[in-house]
Amino acid sequence: MNVLIVHAHPEPKSFTSAMRDQAVTTLEKQGHAVQVSDLYAMNWNPIASAEDFNNCENPDYLVYALEQRQAVKNKSLASDIQQELDKLLWADLLILNFPIYWFSVPAILKGWLDRVLVSGVCYGGKRFYDQGGLRGKKVLVSLTLGGREHMFGEDAIHGPLEDMLRPLLRGTLAYTGMEVLPPFIAWHVPYISQDARESFLNDFAQRLDNIDQDQALVFPRLDQFDERLYPLQPAVQTNNG
Amino acid sequence: MNVLIVHAHPEPKSFTSAMRDQAVTTLEKQGHAVQVSDLYAMNWNPIASAEDFNNCENPDYLVYALEQRQAVKNKSLASDIQQELDKLLWADLLILNFPIYWFSVPAILKGWLDRVLVSGVCYGGKRFYDQGGLRGKKVLVSLTLGGREHMFGEDAIHGPLEDMLRPLLRGTLAYTGMEVLPPFIAWHVPYISQDARESFLNDFAQRLDNIDQDQALVFPRLDQFDERLYPLQPAVQTNNG
């Protein structure tokens, strides 16, 4: 497999960075080809703007998704975006590795999603969910957070973590057609012992060793909806947020 | 009231920008004091990093939230953060005005949340949800999106929009103690007529004219949980995602 790890943590010595290193080691040992986009180290620009297009179709009025589609056709995407898009299209497995900021991705990673998942390639028109432009690829979210596991779940104070991750897991990754694997979660990281951290790293390595056997999460399919995207039957079933 | 509008759209002539202008006009006409943070115009830096602190407590190992707490005590937050935090603390009502990018906020606005909602002021320890540092303030999310209204809801292809907005409405805004008003949503904006756009602007003005009568959404309260944050009763009720 070709694997792209997109990593976003401001501290190179962080546990989240150790997870990235663990992933590289484990996956390379299995014979996979691995590329890493370390967004902080790359000084990644997260801001979607008119400067993302070498020739704006309409320089007087920016409609970002329209310019993306045009730039894909004309091969005029800004080079930093094109490089990341090339890595993404090369990958069979995408790993997003980050610390939770506000129950979501850090802004620098949000800006990778905003700019790299371009309309015209990753989605567009009726190409989304199971018909998305990135179908055939798998994606794993691996994240660290400060909260404890009992703070998440049906009756827990924050509700299920998967519900908090819904715009990412469903609204972004499943939307573009990728098979979304259950997230790997390292809980309470700033407060745990070195042993507990090593245990998470071992669990992560084991998870990656057996990634082929992972069952993807279930999301809507376009054949459950009519031409105008009204549901053909009520109550689409998913097994998570 | 003092009102802070945080606005994030790359196109100054966009409909989202017209919504910002509508909010300023309507609120000033009512006698409220209004400040606008136009993140694109300000060239806002969305990237949380060690540079956000004039004197890092631990220059060898960045723990972002710890440095925030220390910088609040020492008054050594980076000046761009301090300026936004001052505006936020001045405000009785916060309005976040943006186009949906990937069922979430654009990266530049995520970076405002990541950097400005500092630990030690906005939250910290047991100060979250109804005990959050920003309690007493109200917040309104006003957003535009390309999707149609029938694509959202219980049986709809994307599920309820409030569920997609959960990390923002609950995990961020309610978490810091603010009263979260129901979002104002302008649907299908890139594809609708000028009349339909004006109708949204009128609805928005009317909503803002009567903002005092808005019922806030319901979120968990700390008194529903024990000291370790285990639920005292099962099934915390909320009326949205």
Kindly list the characteristics that best describe this protein.
homodimer, 241 residues, alpha/beta, Rossmann fold, 6-stranded parallel sheet
Describe it:
The structure is a homodimer of 241-residue chains. Chain A is α/β, with parallel strands linked by helices. The first copy, chain A, has a single domain (2-224), classed as Flavodoxin domain (Rossmann fold, 3-Layer(aba) Sandwich), CATH 3.40.50.360. Helix content of chain A is 32%, strand content 13%. Chain A has seven helices and six strands; from the N terminus they run E-H-E-H-H-E-H-E-H-H-E-E-H. In chain A, strands 1, 2, 3, 4, 5 and 6 form a six-stranded parallel sheet that branches. In chain A, helix 1 (15-29) packs parallel to helix 7. Chain A is globular, with a radius of gyration of 18 Å. The model of chain A has no long low-confidence stretch (mean pLDDT 95). Chains A and B meet through helix 4 and helix 6 of A and helix 5 and helix 7 of B.
Write the layout of secondary structure elements.
The structure is a homodimer of 241-residue chains.
Chain A: E1 2-7, H1 15-29, E2 33-38, H2 64-74, H3 79-90, E3 93-99, H4 107-116, E4 138-144, H5 161-164, H6 166-174, E5 179-180, E6 184-186, H7 194-209
Parallel strand pairs in A: 1-2, 1-3, 3-4, 4-5, 4-6
Helix pairs in contact in A: 1-7
Quick rundown:
Chain A has 7 helices and 6 strands; from the N terminus they run E-H-E-H-H-E-H-E-H-H-E-E-H.
Number of helices of chain A: 7
Provide the CATH superfamily of chain A: Flavodoxin domain
Strand content of chain A: 5-15%
E-strand count of chain A: 6
> What is the distance, rounded to the nearest whole angstrom, between the alpha carbons of the first and last residues of chain A?
28 Å
Number of domains of chain A: 1
Oligomer: homodimer
Q: Can you give the helix content of chain A as a percent range?
A: 25-40%
CATH top level of chain A is Alpha Beta
User: H/E order of the elements of chain A?
Assistant: EHEHHEHEHHEEH
Unreliable spans of chain A are: none
What about the largest sheet of chain A?
6 strands, parallel
Question: Shape of chain A from CA axes?
Answer: globular
The largest contact between protein chains, plus residue counts on each side, is: A-B, 63 and 63 residues
- CATH architecture term of chain A: 3-Layer(aba) Sandwich
Radius of gyration of chain A: 18 Å
CATH domain fold name of chain A:
Rossmann fold
Write down the overall mean pLDDT of chain A. 95
